[in-house]
Design goal:
Blueprint (H helix, E strand, L loop, with lengths): L1 H10 L1 E2 L1 H8 L3 H13 L12 E2 L4 H5 L5
Antiparallel strand pairs: 1-2
Helix pairs in contact: 2-3
């Protein structure tokens, strides 16, 4: 998941398809990663067809030692 968090921080937005393509995982795994990031407060809630917003900065992520 660390790689996924770094990816979405760099991109500034996230969707299941972005995670799938960039991490080369299936839909189920990408969806699970998105759910985990939402639970941790790293990304916004589901907004229909719009990509989710990233709610954490690179500096905040680097200061965390949770993953």
């Amino acid at each position: 998941m660390k790689e996924a968090v770094e990816l979405v921080i760099d991109m500034g937005q996230v969707s299941v398809s972005i995670v799938q393509r960039n991490l080369k995982v299936g839909y189920a795994r990408a969806s699970e990663i998105i759910d985990q990031m939402e639970e941790l407060g790293f990304i916004s809630k589901f907004q229909g067809s719009k990509p989710r917003k990233v709610l954490i900065t690179k500096e905040q992520w680097q200061n965390m030692n949770i993953l």
